Amino acid sequence: MSDDPIRPMMQTVAVLRSDDFVVSEGVAEGEGISFADELVMDDVYQLSKSATRLPLSLSLREDAEGFEISETSTIGKIGNAVYLDSCVTMMATDSTTYEVLVLVEVEDGGLEATYLLPLANLTSDTNYRLVGVDKDAATTRFAEVASVSFTRGTHITMASGEQRAIEDLVVGDKVLTRDDGPQAVRWVGQSTLRAVGEFAPIVITKGALHNENDLLVSPDHRLFIYQRQDKLGAGRSEVLVKVRHLINDDTVYRRDGGFVDYFQLLFDEHQIIYAEGIAAESLLIDPRTRAALPDHLRSGRASHASHGHRAHLDYEVQEKLLKDPDAVGLLRKASSN
To answer: Within 10 Å of residue 148's Cβ, how many Cβ atoms?
Structure first.
């Protein structure tokens, strides 16, 4: 791991306001969901029919606890601190459980607003009973959301040119990287999650971006694309694109439902590797994702150091450049021979 300082990292999450999720039966009846110390077990909540998830953009800094609201956010006050308060568990009437992260916005030491980040899809026609509150789990669950992941069966290009399923990789295997040639895998993470909400994978169908097979990745996974012609108007040939911004419900779509096996690949530095023929990023260690690492990595250098800055991180394009309904087609044409 590099000890070089890193620039602030950004994370945008789709949240609900606290008054979108109100107690319909219980001690706090009529009140929106609050932070952990004010929650009452067995209170029943309902989602407002007019509830809309809004993008909360956060800046993450290595030397600061929590986050702050960035200038690109559409809600909250720019510069205010935001903290992960708790992970709460709700149970629907059919006994299905749902996890929700509670985030609090603070200004001048006082509570300004409370937000919900549902980790599964909530509906307005369901009663949700509060059955669990965990202050310690919030950081880990947020890290799982932020950690870029490939799904089981994804073919990774090895240093030898072999196409190997990601679940068959082990520590020490040499993978081909764009910037540094063959690099050894330092850790292979694996988790099985319900494929709903923020954990539902994004499918890039075969050929959509010259990929050899369908590629399924986590929503915040970024792809590296070299434009032979600047079709996006990014002002450069090399662009880093977040897959959630490419969804067109046709060639790129969210696969919601069931369970998904996610895998993370960690190298000494953040790398661009090749998955199903597409250049895609590896796991980036930063304040968002460190809690997803196993104890033996968090207790070593990874506990106080992040991956150093890489030039390709400067190539990320903003969502506004991908608003074209055929953004995927534009990128396919731009990267064609």
So the answer is: 22
Is 142 within 8 Å of 119 (Cβ atoms)?
no
Encoding tokens for residue 144? 């799982």
Cα–Cα distance measured from residue 284 to residue 165, given in angstroms and rounded to the nearest whole number: 21
**Residues 227-251: tens digit of each pLDDT:** 888 878 888 888 999 999 999 999 9
Tens-digit pLDDT profile for residues 140-196: 899 888 899 999 999 999 999 999 999 999 999 999 999 999 999 999 999 998 898
Q: State which amino acid sits at residue 320.
A: K
Per DSSP, the three-state class of 308 is coil
Residue 122 · residue 180 · CB < 8 Å: no
Q: Taking CA 50 as the corner, what is the angle to CA 326 and CA 199, rounded to the nearest 5 degrees? A: 55
DSSP annotation of 309 reads P
Residue recorded with tokens 């945008």? 12
**pTM of structure:** 0.82
